[in-house]
Amino acid sequence: MLNTYQSTLIKKHPSLPARIMRIVTPHGEVLTPTFMPVGTRAMLNYATPTDLEANGSRLILGGNTYHMLCTPGMDVIESVGGMHKFMGWPHAMLTDSGGFQVFSLAKKGSVCIIDEDGAVFKHPLTGKIIHLNPKTSIQTQKMIGADIIMAFDQCTPEAGGRETALAALDRTHRWLVLSKKEHEKNPSSYYGLRQALFGIIQGGSFRDLREQSTHFILQQDLDGIGIGGEVIGFNMPKTCEIIDWVRPMLPENKIRYTMGVGLGPQDLIDVVAKGIDIFDCVAPTRNARHGTLYYGEIIERDGWLAFEHPQARTQVSNIEKCRILIKKNNYAKDDAPIMPNCSCYTCQHFSRAYLHYLFKEGLIAYFHLASIHNIHVMQAVCTHMRELILKV
Predict the structure, then answer these.
(1) How many CA atoms lie within 13 A of 245 on its CB side?
(2) Residue-wise pLDDT tens digits, 68-120
């Protein structure tokens, strides 16, 4: 095991910004583009590490800083030797800084209050006060022991206009400097393994603020670059536009990470075409739990890929058609797999009829099998993108 972090450009698409990168971490190598399944609470809902390995996952988002502080507490994580051992994940891991909770929980003023130094949370069960700021966030991520850690930031809300976006930008930049200072005291985890620090481009939907933020983050000479904010992943046309704004400024040898992208397979295809390397989203497993299963074909078109329903050319949008709602009664006697030609464990062994039955009965087996399928589809799309880039 190499105790290092490196990112290297392997190959670029001849006519698109899409590319393959190799990431070397103390927990193994990762080839991009790759989707990161999200294990916010030190587990991926209804999927095991073995399931993730089987579908090709080699990098996950594991153990959110805020949630790990709340429970089980960092004394537990540290006592077992870090998040990798705690959750039984042997491969590379990224963790987030808690910045998204600053965004989401601050809407409930009694739960999270933001000031210029950071955020003050109230433990949801015990009422204990938790101070999350650049210093405590980095210290916590070092106890978690992830291979890639994120600078503490404030996720920019779309509501509030330019003034709100600028205030979040200023905080994010100040907190980045403090995060880097804390990280550089010892660029390794509490367990002696090298950690990479990524900064996060903010600025909302304002081009000049995004460019200003990109310039500032590049000045800090970090290991990689995240692109954050409420709009990223939520509004895909705007997400792609923002990537186009900042990509010309980004160095080719550093990983680019769009935070929260992955509502469906086509989203991954769209951002990789714009030059993005890694992405994460809770949607694949959340969709699975609620009965929405990905369904479509990965096809080549005009030198790139698309994820489409076989009968996409109808009045129903392709996005709406690239999924199966397994609760519908027309699947009750359907002996076909979820998706033809899908090599996931679920499609190889079980029918739509069986999954319909499990879902209707609320049986745990459904949640497990459905999550395996949706994550597999996301990784299969990434595999196809890598293969295409290598052959063109």
Answers:
(1) 22
(2) 988 999 999 999 999 999 999 999 999 999 877 766 766 666 677 778 888 88
Q: Do 59 and 94 form a contact (C-beta atoms < 8 A)? A: yes
Tokens linked to 158: 């779309």
Considering the chain, tell me which residue range(s) the CATH 3.20.20.105 domain(s) occupy. Answer: 6-281
Catalytic residue positions? 96, 280
Integer Cα distance of 366 and 355 in angstroms: 6
Q: Please give the torsion angle defined by the CA atoms of residues 209, 215, 217 and 220, in that order, rounded to the nearest 10 degrees.
A: -150
Q: List pLDDT tens digits, range 211-248.
A: 999 999 999 999 999 999 999 999 999 999 999 999 99
3-class state of residue 115 by DSSP: strand
* Side chain identity at residue 258, one-letter code: T
Say which DSSP state 249 is in. G
Cβ neighbours, 10 Å, residue 108: 10
Q: How far apart are CA 45 and CA 55, in angstroms?
A: 15
| Tokens encoding 65 | 């800083």
Q: What CA–CA distance (Å, rounded) separates 121 from 127?
A: 9
Cβ(278)–Cβ(386) below 8 Å:
no
Residue type, 314: T
Cα-atom radius of gyration of the chain, to the nearest Å? 21
What CATH fold (topology level) applies to the domain 6-281?
TIM Barrel (3.20.20)
